[in-house]
Amino acid sequence: DGVTRAASMAMMPMAMGFGGNVVEQLARALRDGELGEQATVDVTLSACRNLPVANTYACVSVAATGEPKKTGTHAGLSPSINETLSLAVPSRSSDTVMVKVYRQVGSKQDADVDTLVGRAEVPVSDFGRAEDKTWSGSKVYALELLNEDGEALGQGRSKPVVELRASFIEAPRKRAEDLERQLESVKGLQQVTKERLTGKEREAELLRDDLQRKVTDLEHVTAERNKLRDEVQRARFNSGLGGAAPAPVVVMAPAPGAGGGGGGGGAAASE
Hints:
Elements: H1 2-30, E1 39-49, E2 56-62, E3 69-70, E4 80-89, E5 96-103, E6 115-123, H2 124-128, E7 138-144, E8 161-170, H3 171-238, H4 260-270
């Protein structure tokens, strides 16, 4: 019983501590502005239109970090892309999302070698702010592609454009979702631990009952043994084997030549 309680006390704080840590992180993440300016932007590129060349791909980056994410390479002058890229936004108020379209010239994508077709950009604040002024906005764009000098690549309906949807994802919300999933996992772990402990407690109870039965059986066997030993001792004693044999009677004969006075003594001895 003591071993089972010790196991329960040792395992439950570990599970509770893990769960408590997740709950604490969840509470912190839900505090308003806890993560400051940091957030995530999801850019879904649907298509490019009226490109001057084929075999192209798009690179999307946040201007402050400059670390791009790329789509696959697509054929045609108006390729459908339908790919979503997620990028970290260090500063929602000042960052800009930049899209660059390249023509792949080699066997693999290499922005340092491939030809830049055109670029477009949009401030995070332009789509990040929703109508209710919260940072949860999303907008659909048809952005005109410009050359490196910022000049248009075409005129009228023939202008090359990139069509996309940009969505602002509040960092605490995403963090809260992750933590909520972790919390559910912890709850599941605690339930499994509880069930295992219940099973171990049942096993310990069965072992205690079995041990008690064995102790009782041992006591009965010991009592029977003592009883049989007493009976054997009594039987041996009653049969003459249990005590010492009586000492033999020794009769002394009179000494030869004894006188008359001694005869009386001899007669008495004979008697």
